[in-house]
Design goal:
CATH topology of one domain: Chloramphenicol Acetyltransferase
Structural class: alpha+beta
Distance between the termini: 54 Å
Largest sheet: 7 strands, mixed
CATH class of one domain: Alpha Beta
CATH architecture of one domain: 2-Layer Sandwich
Number of helices: 8
Radius of gyration: 26 Å
Shape: globular
Length: about 450
Amino acid sequence: MARIDVIMPQMGESIAEGTLSKWMKKVGDAVKRDEPIFEISTDKVDAEIPAPSAGVLAEIRVQEGQTVPIQTVVAIIETEVGVVAAVSTPAPVPAAAAPAPAPAAAPAAAPVSAPPIAPTRTAAPGGNGGESADERLRRLSTPLVRRIAAEHNVDIAGIPGSGHAGRVTKKDLLGYIEQGGAPAAAGAATPAPLSGAQPPAWPAGAPAASNPAWEATPWEGDRVEPMSRIRQLTAEHMIFSRRTSAHVTSYYEVDMSQVQKLREKNKRLYEERGAKLTYLGFIVKAVADNLRKHPVVNAAAQGTSIIYRGQVNIGIAVALDWGLIVPVIKKADELSLLGIMRTMHDLADRARIKKLKPDEIQQGTFTITNPGVFGSYIGAPIINQPQVAILGVGAIEKRPRVVTMPDGTDTIVPRMMTMLSMTYDHRIVDGADADRFFGDVKKMLEAFPEAAV
């Protein structure tokens, strides 16, 4: 008999935890390998997670609605049906319960039936040698929680945690701050009430609702709905990105008439090959082909170092009813236009039905968002961390343009035009770097080679 751990997967490079939103199987059910068994929700995606092995779902350790760190064992699959005992779904572990004592022979290991916890480590020289396991677990909360705590000068160890093994969650911390929790620094005074003449400061890293002075109140006739988890965390990451990167946006007007001509000429041929020939596909191809020539735009920041990515992996933002997701076209510079079209539409279609795999939304090196499909003329998108640039595509439509004729005279003609924007991180990318890359993308689109279609 083999017991297979089912873990909470990492659904993005910056994701530290996920919420188990729905079990699609119950204890005792037979499961097939790669069959969806539960749904998760993170700030980047709502997704169905497949079974890592065929067998029987023998144990469920994480209940619907619980949020746990990545790599947490959420269930156990028994691979031999005949020897699986009848196991009832355990009741949820009390949020603040301390971990059960480990066997004497293995002091750092958690019991098999308990949710996994962080291993106990010996205090470093000069550290707090008297720190308990519970205190250590609270201190080892997620990076996001620790960052918010540092910004508000709050000691996490003093906050009751509702997470697994007593960990302090973001909700715990923000609730503590909203209720006027005391800062960690001794003798720190509570801020004086704000005068009407001076607007209150927006708290760094926290949503607007955490500051009562900015909080809206519902009026008669209003409808109040709680934000979904994906909406809350997306907002948080956008705020984090704005505070992390020095955002600068450049705008280019691009004549898409050549692309339109090639699209009309080859549209039916592509449909016969199982791909829809779209304007966005041409833009992805132009970006992919030019990122290799301009590696600083395909980079990432790591402290005081710059990581120049060896792969060109382009994320395409997809709007869903419940939020936004960015599936990634891996090694896009190695794909033909047909390959890009097929991959792009396959990822978008599966994103809408929650069928993306975890690795299909990870390791992006550059992002493209297309608000123009909804009619937007242009926008200034926020960088998708830890990348250093993002391209925005405006509406593609006929507009008047001044064209110089062969005899030197000017005339106004209708052309298929669009506005492209690129927001870049000025810590890494200079304006000249951005414009050289952007200029090459524009040049390729306006004279797109017919041989590349």
